[in-house]
Structure formats: C-alpha cells, structure tokens
Design goal:
Blueprint lengths: L5 H12 L5 H15 L2 H4 L17 H17 L1 H12 L4 H13 L6 H10 L6 H11 L1 H6 L1 H12 L4 H14 L8 H13 L6 H14 L1 H14 L3 H10 L5 H10 L2
Helix pairs in contact: 1-2, 1-4, 2-5, 4-6, 5-6, 6-8, 8-11, 10-11, 10-12, 11-13, 12-14, 13-14, 13-15, 14-16
C-alpha cells in the first residue's frame, strides 16, 4: 500500500475534479486514484472490515476523507452534474466507488425529493448488498429524513408493508439508521411504523426488529417499554412474546418486571 502524502493527494484530487462535469472521465480517474492507494494485501480476499459481495480497494481513510472535503463545494454548485456523476459511479463494481456515489446523493442540494427518491428506489434493489444498505440509509436518504420527513416516512412504509422479509429488512434498516441521527425526536413515527410488525412478526425479521427496538430503548426506555406493553396486550403471537423477552436487557429492573408480567 502506498503511503498517503497529503500534498500529493490534494494535487491528485484537484486533477480529478477537473472532470467533475464529465462523469465517464471522472469515473475513470477515480478508479485510477483508488487503485493507486489500494491495500493490495487485502484486495484478493475478503475485506476484514466490510463483509461485502463487492470488491474493495480497502483504502486508507485519509484518501476518502480528503476526496469528500474537496468534492463538497463542487456539489453545492452543480446539482444536475452531481446527480449525473452519482449515477455513473453507482455502476462501478467496487464498494468504495459506490460509497462516493452515495455521498454525492447526500450532498446534492434539492428542493424536490423526487431525484433522491428515484435513485434510492433503484439503488435499494432486491439484490442490494447488505454492506451498502446502511450507507444508503445513513447518508443517501438523510435529506429525506431531515428536509422531507413525510416523504421519508412514506418511503420507509413502502418497504415495511411488503410481504417479502428482505424488503421489510431494508425498511427496518432505514428506521434503525434514523435513530442514530443526532437529536432525532420523532420516535412516535417509529413506534407507529413498526407496530404491525411487532404484533405479527415474521421469524426472518426478528433480528432486525430487535435492533430497532434496542435503539428505541436506548433513546426512550420508558416509552419503548410502554409500547411493548401495548404490543403484548394486542398480540397473541408467540414470536411477539419471544421478541419482547429478547429485548428485556435494555430496561431497568422495574421495567423488566412489568414486561415479564405481560409475558405470563
């Protein structure tokens, strides 16, 4: 792996940015840049940090960090060109290049959510790599959550209302990522969205449901315990009771005692 020289890296990125409005050329140049800094000892095998079906350059963090810093002002001034570039980079087989596409989507200034929705719907396809799902929700969809919350809720609901466990899993991942946003206060929306799933959970989605409930309990333990109390009263599902039992360690002894009484 080539050592990162900050001065050389900035010159390399400056040269790359000359092709910002030429997506194919930028794509080619980005691949050259990433290949230059690739950790070749890991490229032939599975990445240690990321379990992904995509190939990986296993780049040192300073490379992607500096690239994002230098991309940001270009993105702010070139909405259409940024979206075109994101579309081009998403076609790449490498994980890190797709992550740049996600970053571009997150940074693109929009006054209409449709360009974001169009790309999220394409990118969150049925065969999406799980290693990218969290990145898409955490970064690519963050504008929907903060600027267009009603659109974000409807978009999440479109996955949770499916019968297919994989689609539901994608939606639950979006909810879990939303709870990691600093100062997120709209937990009632999360409770409402997961309520049908908790009352009648599919076994294949129990793990993802528990992750969402764990995150809710960390943020609002009393409200989450009350929500589970309601679910226990409304549901006869064995899976619901199993889910609540698995979530007990999130709560104080007093709240655990109340929930255990609901499970009897």
């Amino acid at each position: 792996m080539v050592a990162v020289n900050p001065t050389r890296l900035r010159f390399q990125i400056a040269d790359l940015l000359n092709d910002f409005k030429a997506p194919v050329n930028f794509h080619r140049g980005l691949s050259v840049l990433f290949d230059f800094y690739a950790n070749r000892t890991l490229r032939s095998g599975e990445s240690i940090k990321v379990q992904s079906v995509h190939r990986s350059y296993n780049l040192p963090h300073p490379v992607t960090r500096q690239l994002k810093i230098d991309l940001k002002p270009r993105v702010a001034q070139n909405t259409a060109e940024t979206l075109a570039l994101a579309d081009e980079l998403w076609t790449d087989p490498y994980l890190e290049v797709k992550q740049v596409a996600i970053y571009l989507l997150n940074q693109t200034p929009v006054d209409n959510p449709q360009p974001i929705l169009d790309r999220l719907q394409r990118w969150l396809a049925y065969d999406i790599d799980r290693a990218l799902i969290s990145d898409i929700w955490a970064s690519g969809a963050s504008q929907l959550q903060t600027i267009f919350p009603a659109v974000w809720e409807s978009f999440i609901q479109s996955y949770l209302s499916q019968q297919d466990p994989k689609s539901i899993s994608i939606g639950l991942s979006g909810l879990r990522q939303s709870l990691e946003v600093q100062d997120f206060k709209n937990t009632p929306v999360i409770f409402r969205l997961i309520s049908p799933l908790v009352r009648n959970p599919q076994h294949a989605n129990l793990k993802d449901l528990r992750k969402v409930i764990d995150a809710l309990a960390q943020q609002s333990p009393t409200e989450t315990a009350y929500f589970l109390h309601q679910m226990a009263a409304l549901s006869d599902s064995v899976e619901t009771k199993r889910l609540i039992k698995q979530c007990l360690p999130n709560f104080s002894q007093a709240l655990q005692a109340e929930l255990k009484a609901d499970l009897k």
